[in-house]
Design goal:
Strand order of the largest sheet: 6-17-9-5-8-7
Distance between the termini: 35 Å
Radius of gyration: 24 Å
Largest sheet: 6 strands, mixed
Number of strands: 17
Structural class: alpha/beta
Length: 489
């Protein structure tokens, strides 16, 4: 919807060579991926006159490929270069002309699609700062706008599902569905969507069973597709990294948190967690770079710090340059060059949650407004670190279906969505009694059985509503991977 508007305004897909002055950075990473993959544009960033002159003379002039050049600041463009391109300028002022462009540029925009829908439904100019702020915080979330936006998201998800034959489409679906859930919980929007969600989760589980085993072979250069490649990706792109691991953070949680990251710009990607989505399994795999089958103790966190140090030393960091912290309160030493920070706040909220998704939304919002994460990002960034933020797994609301009995020897975890059995016992009876399914041991130790609840169920005293993790649902498996690009003083 918004992209179609951009496409028409800028001649995307029609003109072979386009140069766009995008001072508000309206064209986001998703748009760029679409332009690259579907419309076959080579994307070039105009940052420096001399640098671009070299690219222009050695690459652009010598072939007939499509090129889209993006400028984010008012840099001089030589006449002969400009003549080769259709030059366009986009800004909040010329797209969302009924609103105050200063406020739009300084206010976190949840989703351009929702903003575009809301602007199209706005039949008056509200160009003052106060009116625009009220619009972004309240009117944009009116029933009319949200209804149209939810319909758009469902259509986009269903379109992607029909073509979801590879992991990249499911990563996109994970983000679309997180936005869908975010808006529902933000304004307590009721919609009868059980069949839609059930079908979505069933198809995602089918993808996991058919294709998840191939993800470990995907390159980590552009982004870590599977969480065990997080550090490989970071070490490719940074010599002084700081990795913040928000235990249990879903994409929806990140959408909530990002509202309060004033002055922070970031790149957004997503990754697949290790299944079952249990902290010890997924996070140890992330910090070691190893798949769980190769870990000595995959079901507890006793070796986590050692695994992180070993991975860093393997990548040429000295022992004294590496730091591993838990919590926000730590001091940075001048010798530090590789830092990992574990934040348990969201996972703690998950395991104490009594109000389901609605409670999680409110609690994560309070956590976000505390400013603790923002202050830590600023501290690390201002000390010269490349800051990355990710999660070991997400979470979801479930209804409890009963407690397993006589299961053989169970590996104890905090998850109420997965049973890991060493001595198998009568596991067929357990599966039947609790409506569990057996998960193939992709990347996992083979001498265990992994029994997992259906997407909306968990183990516990029957009939309670809880928030948990450990399963194969979209919200648990696809997690955010963030690179901080800038922090205003």
């Amino acid at each position: 919807m918004f992209f179609e508007h951009l496409k028409a305004e800028l001649g995307l897909g029609i003109h072979e060579r386009i140069m766009i002055y995008d001072k508000n950075k309206i064209i986001n990473q998703e748009h760029i991926s679409l332009l690259r993959d579907k419309y076959k544009y080579n994307i070039v960033y105009y940052r420096d006159v001399e640098e671009f002159r070299y690219i222009f003379e050695t690459q652009i002039k010598k072939n007939k490929d499509r090129y889209l050049v993006l400028l984010y600041s008012d840099i001089y463009i030589p006449y002969d270069v400009r003549q080769e391109f259709n030059f366009m300028e986009i800004s909040y002022g010329n797209i969302f002309y009924k609103l105050n462009s200063y406020v739009l540029n300084n206010h976190p925009i949840f989703d351009m699609e929702l903003l575009y829908i809301s602007h199209e439904n706005l039949y008056r100019d509200i160009s003052s700062e106060k009116e625009t702020e009220k619009f972004l915080e309240e009117e944009m979330y009116s029933d009319e706008n949200v209804s149209e936006y939810m319909k758009y998201l469902k259509e986009e998800i269903e379109k992607e599902i029909s073509e979801a034959d590879n992991y990249s489409r499911w990563l996109k679906i994970g983000t679309l569905f997180a936005k869908y859930e975010y808006v529902k919980h933000k304004i307590s929007y009721f919609i009868d969507d059980y069949e839609f969600i059930n079908d979505l989760q069933t198809k995602f589980r089918d993808f996991i069973f058919d294709n998840y085993k191939s993800l470990s072979s995907v390159s980590a250069y552009n982004a870590p597709v599977l969480l065990n490649r997080v550090l490989d990706h970071i070490f490719i792109h940074s010599t002084k990294p700081a990795l913040i691991v928000m235990d249990g953070m879903s994409i929806e949680d990140w959408l909530i948190i990002s509202e309060d990251l004033k002055g922070v710009s970031y790149g957004f990607n997503t990754s697949f967690a290790i299944i079952p989505t249990i902290t010890a399994i997924s996070r140890q795999s992330m910090l070691s770079g190893e798949l769980p089958a190769l870990l000595k103790s995959p079901f507890n966190l006793n070796n986590e710090k050692t695994l992180f140090f070993d991975k860093c030393i393997e990548n040429n960091y000295k022992d004294y340059e590496i730091k591993y912290y838990r919590g926000y309160d730590f001091q940075i030493d001048t010798r530090d060059k590789c830092i990992c920070v574990i934040i348990n706040d969201i996972d703690d909220l998950i395991h104490s949650q009594k109000q389901g998704n609605a409670g999680m939304y409110r609690d994560v919002q309070l956590l976000s407004k505390s400013g603790k994460l923002l202050n830590m990002i600023k501290k690390l960034y201002n000390e010269g670190f490349d800051v990355f933020i990710t999660s070991d797994h997400g979470h979801k609301e479930c209804v409890t279906i009963g407690t397993p009995k006589g299961a053989g020897v169970e590996v104890q975890t905090k998850s109420k969505r997965t049973l890991v059995l060493k001595e198998f016992g009568d596991y067929h009876r357990l599966m039947e009694e609790l409506n569990l399914f057996e998960y193939s041991s992709f990347y996992l130790p083979k001498d265990y059985r992994y029994l997992i609840c259906q997407h909306d169920e968990a183990m516990g005293i029957k009939g309670e509503k809880i928030v948990s993790h450990g399963g194969t649902s979209l919200q648990e498996v696809i997690v955010p991977f963030i690179k901080i690009k800038g922090v205003e003083a």
